[in-house]
Amino acid sequence: MNDNHTSSRRNLLAAGAAALATTTIKAFGDRDYSPHAAPVRYPDPDIISLDPRFNKYKLGNTPIQRIYHNKKTLWTEGPAWNGVGRYLLFSDIPNNLQLRWIEDDGRTSLFRNPSGNSNGNTFDFNGRQIACEHGNRRVVRYEYNGTITVLASEFNGKPFNAPNDVVVHPEDGGIWFTDPGYGSMWHYEGNKGPLHHKEAIYRIDAETRKITKVTDEIFKPNGLCFSPDYKKLYVSDTGDGKNIKVWNVVDQTRLTKGREFASMKLDGFDNPGNADGIRADLDGNIWASAGWVGAGYDGVHIFAPDGDRIGQIHLPEICSNVCFGGRKRNRLFMTASQSVYAVYTDAIGAHIT
Known about the structure:
1 helix, 42% strand, mainly beta, 353 residues, Neuraminidase, 27 strands, 5-stranded antiparallel beta sheet
């Protein structure tokens, strides 16, 4: 490739990104994602800059793609990227399944049935899958030989409400999870029954398996993620808070100075909506699934490290969770109602899943 061609291509990509920063086209709501849909004209009009700080993470020549959809699927959740297998693992909570989207040929296969009505999934730093099971009210780990290790099933002699989402700390292997109890509220997502604890965030010690309640200073803790340096923990509140909270992590085991990081209220919408699953990129931005408001809100909201909302990705369905994956960890995967979407970015996910 000659220098003139290289320069022209760079200029074209830059122009596409610039156009994307200023586009006023609103494609959300009536966009066709079916296999026979017309091509998307670049730049993708559903990737929206609200602040110039978001421009650097957008690519002018890439579309939002629906990589999975099935009318039998009811509520996709818990996306987790497996770098060795090059597949995306995700849950269909009501159908009691885990599914696997395989990168090399784009097919989706059944991964686990039953799944305990699993919600959040992750992989630890040894490559083992960890899952939050609504139906069994527990957190489990799948070992290399396929056996199941129960990591947490009760606290102070009583069952958990319904563990929701989970992350792992790399330095000590501590496992942090939320327990808001959605899987106990309806038979649809688990087994309906009483909530035995105030909604809280817990930590499992990797060596002793001792379970500690790290905080219950939140209405309904849902998705969670660490900052890139693991010195902060972000947690979405799908209760009355309608926000994302953040704490300082002390000695890898405790939380202090809980405060609001970002509100999910968006100008122009009466309903504040919810953030659900969240992930950080290497620059400390927080990518939050968002929904329960409607077109122009549902999708992904991106927040700068100071809590300012700087961008949005509009989806035609309610987005439940997100994770970064792909060979360069620059592809954002989004579970949304009956589908899974993906888009390449110039952001790099901060963590392995």
